[in-house]
């Protein structure tokens, strides 16, 4: 860390503050007038990169001998198609749900993979750009892992919730679904209606919140550990340097598993929740 | 750990990317995969068929070879028979020719001997007459003794 070195606490807080449209950290827990520009930038660019890569493979897809790139994309498509077939028992729904799951998997994987970049690299570049533009680098916030932003992960899990509601209505009809809301899981007795309904609402809330929180929590914790490891290196002692190298290596290797696993889990839960919307209780 | 409008934006992006994949990515890749699966299945079926055809062809070859060998044997047997017959015929013809030649020769020899005998007989008769003339010192009338001479000729035969 150059210049007037921040304290460890300042360093961590600086790294965990989003670049948003207000220019300073968000004050309230929920504020719909704020939008995180860094999250949107990385999420959108990586999302576009995702569909561009997939489109690149799809454009040249032939039934002949596939190239390596086509083969890896086909592998992914085949994997997602198999999972979707086993979980969502409606060929018509799968026409949208399976491609969505594929996009989600690749997209989240790539967003998570941003965690493997050196933790100070892009934030420092942004500080330079910000300072070159005349700003105070202490207020040049930048978080590069979009999935470590709760708004982003909950945004996606709310998307899954909307799909669940849509398919519930589509498959069971409005009356069928309302009937299910009040009679499942405990039974059709009128006294049980409120209990059933409460359970159903809790279930939807729990599914959606845990879906978004799980990804967020894993990536946020991973990012924080990278920041702490970087702090260890910043002590500029032999121990700190070795600790930074060794711990950073081990954590990064372990994190390869986590970013893949979390992307896979998010995709699988997307399929599972939508699959459940197709089945009666 | 705050919630803000990013959530809404991310939700919208989520659906747009999903829609894009559904529209432009998924169908061509799945189509290619299905087509390749079909190609491979067809290829495997063709390979199986080719294998079965090969077995049939090999069987046919063996059968044809057997037939060819058989017919070659037949031909040879017929040729040998023909040759034997030709040799036999030739031998029989030769034997016939030899026999005929011998017969002819014998007949010739017989005729020559007969002719010699005839000549001798003539001469014997003449000699007998001449001898008798010498003995009798006179001429014998051959006319008068023609019967006697004929008898003598007869006896000499």
Automatic annotation (TrEMBL), chain A:
Coiled-coil stretches noted in the UniProt entry, renumbered to this chain: none
Record-level GO BP terms: proton motive force-driven plasma membrane ATP synthesis
Pfam family, one: ATP-synt_A
Function field: Key component of the proton channel; it plays a direct role in the translocation of protons across the membrane.
Keyword hit for Transmembrane helix: yes
Cellular compartments annotated: Cell membrane; Membrane
Family: Belongs to the ATPase A chain family.
Record's keyword terms, sorted: ATP synthesis, Cell membrane, CF(0), Hydrogen ion transport, Ion transport, Membrane, Transmembrane, Transmembrane helix, Transport
Lipid bilayer topology: Multi-pass membrane protein
The species this protein was found in: Pseudothauera rhizosphaerae
GO molecular function: proton-transporting ATP synthase activity, rotational mechanism
Regions that span the bilayer: 40-58, 96-114, 150-169, 224-246, 252-274
Protein name according to UniProt: ATP synthase subunit a
Cellular compartments per GO CC: plasma membrane; proton-transporting ATP synthase complex
Automatic annotation (TrEMBL), chain B:
Membrane topology type: Single-pass membrane protein
Transmembrane intervals: 6-26
Pfam name, any one: ATP-synt_B
Gene3D superfamilies: 6.10.250.1580
Compartments, record wording: Cell membrane; Endomembrane system
Entry GO CC: endomembrane system; plasma membrane; proton-transporting ATP synthase complex
Keyword Metal-binding attached: no
Molecular functions per Gene Ontology: proton-transporting ATP synthase activity, rotational mechanism; proton-transporting ATPase activity, rotational mechanism
Residues forming coiled coils: 47-122
Record's keyword terms, sorted: ATP synthesis, Cell membrane, CF(0), Coiled coil, Hydrogen ion transport, Ion transport, Membrane, Transmembrane, Transmembrane helix, Transport
InterPro entries for the chain: ATP_synth_b/b'su_bac/chlpt (IPR002146), ATP_synth_F0_bsu_bac (IPR005864), ATP_synthase_B_chain (IPR050059)
NCBIfam families the UniProt entry points to: ATP_synt_b, PRK05759.1-2
Family membership noted in the UniProt record: Belongs to the ATPase B chain family.
Function of the protein: Component of the F(0) channel, it forms part of the peripheral stalk, linking F(1) to F(0). The b'-subunit is a diverged and duplicated form of b found in plants and photosynthetic bacteria. F(1)F(0) ATP synthase produces ATP from ADP in the presence of a proton or sodium gradient. F-type ATPases consist of two structural domains, F(1) containing the extramembraneous catalytic core and F(0) containing the membrane proton channel, linked together by a central stalk and a peripheral stalk. During catalysis, ATP synthesis in the catalytic domain of F(1) is coupled via a rotary mechanism of the central stalk subunits to proton translocation.
HAMAP family: ATP_synth_b_bprime
Protein name listed in UniProt: ATP synthase subunit b
Source species: Pseudothauera rhizosphaerae
Highest classification ranks of the organism: Bacteria, Pseudomonadati, Pseudomonadota, Betaproteobacteria, Rhodocyclales
